[in-house]
Amino acid sequence: MLTLVKKQLFGDMLALWYEETGEVAQPTIVGGKRVEFQLIPAKMEKKIAKHRRDTNDTVACKVLNKIWNLEFLSARPENAIQYKISGDANAWLYAAGSSMRNSESVELLKSYEFIDLADGVQLVMRDDRGIVARQSVRYRKGDRFVTVSTSVENSGKKEVTLEYLASFSLGGLSPFQPDDGPEAYKVARWRSNWSAEGRLDLQRAEDLGLERSWAGFTQRNLRFGELGMTPVRDYFPQAAFLDEKAGVAWGASLDALSSWQLEVSRTLDSVNLSGGIPDREFGHWKKHLAPGEKLESIAAAVTVVAGDVEDVANRLVEFGQGDVKKSEKDLPIMFNDWCTTWGKPYPPYLLPIADMLKRYPIRYFVMDDGWFRKDGYGIGDWVVVPDQYPAGLKAFVAEIRAKGYIPGIWFEFENAVDSSKLYQEKPEWFLQFDGKRLRTGIRGFLDFRQQKVIDYLAEKVIKFLKENDIGYMKVDYNSPTGYGCDGAESRGEGLRQHTLGVRKFFQMIEDALPELVLEICASGGHRLSPAWMRLSSMASFSDAHEGVEIPIIAANTASLIPVRKNQIWAVLHPEDSNDRLRYSLAAGFMGRLCLSGDLAPLSEAQKKIVGEACDFYRAAVPVLRQGDNRVFREIAPAWLAPKGIQLFTRRNAKQCLAVLHSFENAPANFAAEIPGKWKIARVFGAKNIACQWDGNLLSFAKIKDFQAVAVLLEK
């Protein structure tokens, strides 16, 4: 039985906390307290369903109910605070090895209280041995999510070892169903691979093995996540749960710089969504807490909306917004030389391009990988190739500034290659595993827990940026560490401490160079997490530089990181047809437009198309800066050989941007309903495509394969 003990309004969301009272289903520890956290759309409070008491009369249960007088109660709350201390029992419902939720540690919590904060509510729970667990739910006016974090403090007299700590646990899903919601529930995850970021994986709960058992005598669990310093390699650190019958969707996003885990679990009728630091089973993590010590989890954004998975994504993406640099307020266009010089960013190649690009509103001129190379790779030593910059790099950068650009440069300073002097001469500066240097391929990873490493990089990176008057830095990361390293009570904890050191160094850069524009890149999209997004001004959306799949990936990442940070490459060549040029450029309208390729030899007609694209992009900046996305797709599963059509839309109160891309076997006509009273203000794209707005429907006609058109609607 659930008793409401706390209610708090956060914007359009209502937070509810329930205590377990009365009848108890499947108890494990007598006398423990359970307080469950729920979140619902505020306007739907009266639609909460009256839940069934039991399943005693079902075909599977009625015989045992009659013969043994066994009660099959249908629901039990699960604690909002979830952690496990070594030595305490796992949950008994076949959970060990699958989940560390609902352990004896949380069953031993004997008391609770709520503390009202200036910006939210804190739940405090205690046990008899001195463990104090605190969970804060905070809200900032204007946000469409709450931020949840949890800490565990050892106020007892003996050291304890944490082996699991969740940031949040959202329970009671879904309160709008009176039973176990057969065929009502879906789970959304966003998969990611190199150059294939953001594929939505939306499956029914039943297909994921999350249908409850006939008696409720087992915990179903879906545990997934990421291990290492690339937190978006296989999945984005967010998930959503949908009640399609009620039309409600919940979601959560973790503030992860490195390893993380999420879980969707179920014992009885209700489903729970939780996540945080990877546990001992999944992430090889444990942490000793001496008397007086405490540990804070990573934060999580949690939301709910009367809507679908795209509505959830539009809310969670705001978690990664962060502050805006002065030079970033108007979302300027940039040039990056990678797909132009391919590792040779030298004056003879770049100066003619800099002169040609002056006709366009480009602010950042970025030198990518290669400025430090001569023999070997040079990553780690960071020595400028002197014979390629006869007057010195500083003089070349000054010339770029004189042409009106903010100069940028590429670094990958968290590791070093085996041919570098740093790697060969300072083996003790690197992360270790089993007492030996932790390596991936030809790279070793600098240990950011060591002050000597920080001092070295302050000289090689921060001082270098200052001395050369560089205003933009692209930071790459191209090799995963794996799950952990030596130097702490567990390998997972070693990596967590290293991650804190990395964050601290990025903060040092910010403090020393507050106007520096920072781009995060990790083989393209491997660090597109909220924590990395807030550290940066923008991010490389992918390493898909020239493929036909770029519009698909760009639309995906535009829903997973802030659009103002979604840097999309338009790589152009003189041999491109006009349709191909517009196809590439239009993809850049789904985020931050970045030009690259063989730009200098473009014909005047081609340069005119680039100019038209830049003008269109500038006009769309207000809606790129703020708005909600909706993607209409009729495409086949294969992205490298795409078939069908896609329409990306982004809308706010005054503008609506619509970007159409056709693929193989595209329909000749396509239309989508867009709410609002609009008129067509601008069009960019294939000249044969006819665009029309008829009052609530945006339609396209005469579409051919592999074309693009962008339409800007205004009120």
Describe the structure.
The protein has a domain at 2-320: alpha-galactosidase from lactobacil brevis (Beta-galactosidase, Chain A, domain 5, Distorted Sandwich). 19% of the residues lie in helices and 33% in strands. A hairpin with an 8-residue loop joins β33 and β34. The longest helix has 22 residues, at 491-512.
Distance between the termini: 52 Å
- In the CATH hierarchy, the architecture of one domain is Distorted Sandwich
Question: What radius of gyration results from the CA coordinates?
Answer: 27 Å
Low-pLDDT parts are none
Question: Which structural class do the helices and strands define?
Answer: alpha+beta
**Shape type:** globular
Q: So how many helices?
A: 14
Put the structure in a nutshell.
By secondary structure, the protein is an alpha+beta fold. It is built from 14 helices and 40 strands. α12 (550-558) runs parallel beside α13 (578-587) and α13 runs parallel beside α14 (604-625).
Fold topology:
Layout: E1 2-10, E2 13-20, E3 35-41, H1 62-67, E4 83-85, H2 104-107, E5 111-117, E6 120-126, E7 131-138, E8 146-154, E9 160-173, E10 185-191, E11 199-204, E12 220-226, E13 235-243, E14 248-254, E15 260-266, E16 271-277, H3 280-283, E17 287-289, E18 294-296, E19 300-305, H4 309-316, E20 333-336, H5 338-341, H6 347-357, E21 362-367, H7 393-402, E22 406-411, E23 415-417, H8 421-425, E24 432-433, E25 436-437, E26 439-440, E27 443-445, H9 451-467, E28 472-475, H10 491-512, E29 517-520, H11 530-535, E30 538-540, H12 550-558, E31 566-572, H13 578-587, E32 592-597, H14 604-625, E33 628-635, E34 644-651, E35 655-662, E36 670-673, E37 679-685, E38 690-693, E39 697-701, E40 708-714
Helix pairs in contact: 12-13, 13-14
